[in-house]
């Protein structure tokens, strides 16, 4: 390699982005068609969606392998490392704003939409004319059109899940400090423990959903309470799933002897992501379950 | 390093990746200039596509009554015209300019994350393929306006809304990745000595734009997701019967939508701030106040969203809050216009095509700003809301604002991109045809709106007929004028007078220190900035 690469590594042509573009196209077109076909006989959309996911997985695997190989070959300068770190931070910021939209919907519904339907502010006539029997309470267990459901208590599974996830953030932090002190065995143990806690969280989350659907009658169609509950916890669960996969990949790389005390961007990124997902859960726990 | 030959970029192959040939060059490229060109061409194709839809709209409105298209198809045209112009024409054009110019302006070898750069571009054509394909499906494409208000987009929308939702998701992913790339490049890749307050204003404005993009595109993703679940999965975010609220849709949408408006104008400010000093042969007046004004506009953009919904029934306090915050934006914007005018004051000005477009921008964008102030006044807005006055307002800021600045940028940097001077004669033809027709097109819309003609309607009362006919003629003329631009660009790429490194006497910036056309890799070793 020429001296230029020490300044800043500009990669050669790469096929991964265009493969990723095709994958994303298949996912979007497949998902769109699948959703449209839910109420019809046709069902090819689902297959396109699955094909798209397969292409994206292939792309992620190949792209990351290229990046890891380049990194292990010493092509990346400290400046490159900063680019990656800053890129990851801004990505997490975009995720915060994504959750912000759903938290915004939750707050709006609780503070504005539901009270107004109940006649608050200057909406006495709205209440009288539309649904005079409607009572504005939160959690909204009876919607204006009379759909009934139950509220998810915060004790029990949600509390256990909170403890699991908080603990996992601590164990991941220990893994990180072990890495920085070049203590490889504790690193492996703490990281593996974090993954186990993540999986345990997901299992309990599935359990909670099944309980909500089958015993409480709390579903996606239960009005604004169920909507915000399932979309917030659902997107959070998707992020925990992704984070867990992320951590598993990190563990495999640790087992292969990757990462040094001062160069471990991927580990740093995985750890940031996990802590971010943890903070989202804390907000969820407070605003969706407890309050 | 190497000597650079002007004729072909491919000669510059001391590196293991010069400019390869054929289609694979474009599919696999990681080069910021290739990707910039892809963005710009894509944006121009979308501009013509969206423009063709505008022609359908204007043809239908040439006379009162229903002549050419069904009302439902008319609605699809207004909707897709808006979506394409916002997400397909203006935003990718700015991203293309950012790709081409930012690395050259800050002395960087390329964008910070070149492969992701390729990905952010190539997902866009797919997104628009999905969106456009929905027009040909049973039930038709999106017909609820580009703002897709619930319940139009939920209860009353065609099945293809699912495809609309996912194509918007891809556009969002593309914008977010592009914005991350821009921010990281600017923060991390500046040449030694290129301190913050030496950055060209185009770089500054794009930095702030990129921040806005990352902040609000995810909110748009949230909004379309809720539309999807409301329509297909039985949720009731925007349905009062389930405890939701259709007005909540508007709050979430405009929380995205208003910063989005500034995403489409802040880079214009950067372009104009480069061109006005160059052709006035003076330094930009009040550089630092320009930076602070841009930042203020960005911050304020998060506090004004509900001025789009004064008539939806908000508490009076909220109406007043959003009214005053909106008016506050006139202050930093006024600072900018003042600075541009002060830059020209006693400058030795010449009027090449980029300068003409920049001057037209200042005058016509200011008209759009003033009609914006009229709309900001809550009680007055009750009268103007959803009329052609609003259409006139946002076309003045987006067409004679954003699009004119993009045209100005294209003329200004074409010599650097292609190595040839464009035809000044054709450029002037393009300018004068555009500037006259665009005013015939949009100015009378103010009168239509004040007289009470509602927007997004395929038919209208007989008293609006004359003005609508004038508007339509202006529209066709403006649409045709853009073909001159296409001719100018193709002619300029194919040949013409050789461009010197710095074709404009008063131009400043690192991009003019490298040869024209800019070599495939411009700053492989960073320049020293004094």
UniProtKB/TrEMBL annotation, chain A:
Domain Heme-copper oxidase subunit III family profile stretches: 4-291
UniProt topology in membrane: Multi-pass membrane protein
Gene Ontology cellular component terms for the protein in this record: plasma membrane
Key words of the record: Membrane, Translocase, Transmembrane, Transmembrane helix
Keyword Transmembrane helix (UniProt): yes
InterPro entries: Cyt_c/ubiquinol_Oxase_su3, Cyt_c_oxase_su3_dom, Cyt_c_oxidase-like_su3, Cyt_c_oxidase_su3-like_sf, Cyt_c_oxidase_su3_a-hlx
Residue ranges of the TM segments: 15-35, 47-68, 89-109, 154-175, 187-204, 224-252, 272-290
Enzyme Commission number(s) from the entry: 7.1.1.9
One GO BP: aerobic electron transport chain
Enzyme kind, highest EC tier: translocase
Gene Ontology MF annotations: cytochrome-c oxidase activity
Similarity section: Belongs to the cytochrome c oxidase subunit 3 family.
Protein name: cytochrome-c oxidase
From TrEMBL, chain B:
PROSITE patterns reported in the protein's UniProt record: COX1, COX1_CUB
Protein name, UniProt field: Cytochrome c oxidase subunit 1
Cell compartment(s), UniProt: Cell membrane; Membrane
Domain of life where this protein originates: Bacteria
Organism: Shewanella holmiensis
EC number, UniProt record: 7.1.1.9
Gene name per UniProt: ctaD
Catalytic activity: 4 Fe(II)-[cytochrome c] + O2 + 8 H(+)(in) = 4 Fe(III)-[cytochrome c] + 2 H2O + 4 H(+)(out)
Membrane topology designation: Multi-pass membrane protein
């Amino acid at each position: 390699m020429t001296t230029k690469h020490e300044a800043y590594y500009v990669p050669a042509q790469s096929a991964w982005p265009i493969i990723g573009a095709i994958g994303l196209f298949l996912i979007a077109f497949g998902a769109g068609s699948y959703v449209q076909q839910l109420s019809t006989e046709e069902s090819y959309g689902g297959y396109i969606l699955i094909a798209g996911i397969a292409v994206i997985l292939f792309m992620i695997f190949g792209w990351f392998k290229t990046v890891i190989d380049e990194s292990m070959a010493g092509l990346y300068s400290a400046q490159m490392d900063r680019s990656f770190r800053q890129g990851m931070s801004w990505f997490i910021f975009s995720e915060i704003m994504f959750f912000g939209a759903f938290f915004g919907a939750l707050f709006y519904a609780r503070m504005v939409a539901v009270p107004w339907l109940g006649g608050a502010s200057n909406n006495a006539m709205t209440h009288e004319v539309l649904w005079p029997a409607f009572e504005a309470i939160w959690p909204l267990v009876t919607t204006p059109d009379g759909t009934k459901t139950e509220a998810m208590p915060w004790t029990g599974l949600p509390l256990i899940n909170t403890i699991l996830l908080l603990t996992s953030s601590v164990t991941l932090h220990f893994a990180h400090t072990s890495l920085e002190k070049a203590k490889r065995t504790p690193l492996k143990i703490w990281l593996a423990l974090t993954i186990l806690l993540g999986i345990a969280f997901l299992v309990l989350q599935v359990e909670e959903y099944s309980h909500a659907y089958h015993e409480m009658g709390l579903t996606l169609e239960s009005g604004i309470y169920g909507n915000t509950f399932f979309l917030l916890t659902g997107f959070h669960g998707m992020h925990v799933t992704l984070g867990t996969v992320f951590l598993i990949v990190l563990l495999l790389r640790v087992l292969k002897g990757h990462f040094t005390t001062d160069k471990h961007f991927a580990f740093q990124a995985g750890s940031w992501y996990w802590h971010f997902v943890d903070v989202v859960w804390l907000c969820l726990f407070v605003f969706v379950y407890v309050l | 390093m190497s000597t650079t030959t002007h004729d072909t970029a491919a000669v510059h192959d001391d590196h293991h990746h010069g400019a390869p040939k054929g289609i694979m060059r474009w599919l696999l490229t990681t080069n910021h200039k290739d990707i910039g060109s892809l963005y710009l061409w894509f944006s121009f194709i979308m501009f013509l596509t969206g423009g063709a839809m505008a022609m359908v709209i204007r043809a239908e409105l040439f006379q009162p009554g229903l002549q050419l298209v069904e009302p439902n198809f008319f609605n699809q045209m207004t909707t897709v015209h808006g979506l394409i112009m916002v997400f397909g024409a203006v935003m990718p054009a700015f991203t293309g300019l950012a790709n081409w110019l930012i690395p050259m302006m800050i002395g960087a070898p390329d964008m910070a994350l070149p492969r992701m750069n390729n990905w952010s571009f190539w997902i866009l054509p797919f997104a628009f393929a999905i969106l456009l394909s929905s027009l040909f499906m049973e039930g038709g494409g999106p017909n609820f306006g580009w703002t897709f208000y619930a319940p139009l987009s939920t209860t009353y929308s065609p099945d293809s809304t699912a495809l609309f939702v996912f194509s918007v998701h891809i556009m969002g992913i593309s914008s977010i990745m592009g914005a991350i790339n821009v921010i990281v490049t600017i923060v991390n890749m500046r040449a030694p000595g290129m301190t913050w307050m030496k950055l060209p204003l185009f770089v500054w404005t794009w930095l702030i734009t990129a921040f806005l993009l990352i902040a609000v595109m995810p909110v748009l993703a949230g909004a379309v997701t809720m539309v999807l679940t409301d329509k297909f999965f039985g949720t009731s975010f925007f349905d009062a019967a389930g405890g939701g609220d259709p007005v909540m849709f508007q709050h979430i949408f405009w929380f995205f939508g208003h910063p989005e408006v500034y995403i489409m104008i802040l880079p214009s400010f950067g372009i104009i701030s480069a061109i006005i000093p160059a052709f006035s042969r003076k330094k930009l007046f009040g550089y630092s106040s320009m930076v602070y004004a841009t930042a203020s506009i960005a911050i304020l953009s998060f506090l004004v969203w509900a001025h789009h919904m004064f008539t939806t029934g908000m508490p009076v306090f909220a109406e007043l809050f959003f009214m005053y915050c909106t008016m506050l934006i006139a202050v930093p914007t006024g600072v900018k216009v003042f600075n541009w005018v002060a830059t020209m004051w006693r400058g030795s000005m010449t009027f090449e095509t980029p300068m003409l477009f920049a001057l037209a921008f200042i005058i016509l964008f200011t008209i759009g700003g003033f009609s914006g102030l009229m709309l900001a006044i809550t009680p007055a807005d009750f009268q103007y809301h959803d009329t052609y006055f609003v259409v006139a307002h946002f076309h003045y800021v987006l067409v004679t604002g954003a699009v004119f600045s993009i045209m100005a940028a294209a003329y200004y940097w074409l010599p650097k991109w292609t190595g040839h001077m464009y035809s000044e004669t054709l450029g002037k033809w393009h300018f004068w045809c555009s500037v006259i027709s665009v005013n015939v097109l949009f100015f009378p819309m103010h009168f239509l709106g004040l007289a009470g003609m509602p927007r997004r309607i395929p038919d209208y009362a007989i008293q609006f007929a004359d003005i609508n006919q004038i508007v339509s003629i202006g529209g066709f003329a403006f649409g045709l004028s853009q073909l001159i631009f296409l001719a100018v660009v193709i002619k300029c790429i194919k040949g013409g007078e050789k461009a010197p490194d710095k074709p404009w006497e008063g131009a400043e910036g690192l991009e003019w220190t490298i040869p024209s056309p800019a070599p495939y890799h411009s700053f492989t070793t960073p320049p020293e900035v004094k």
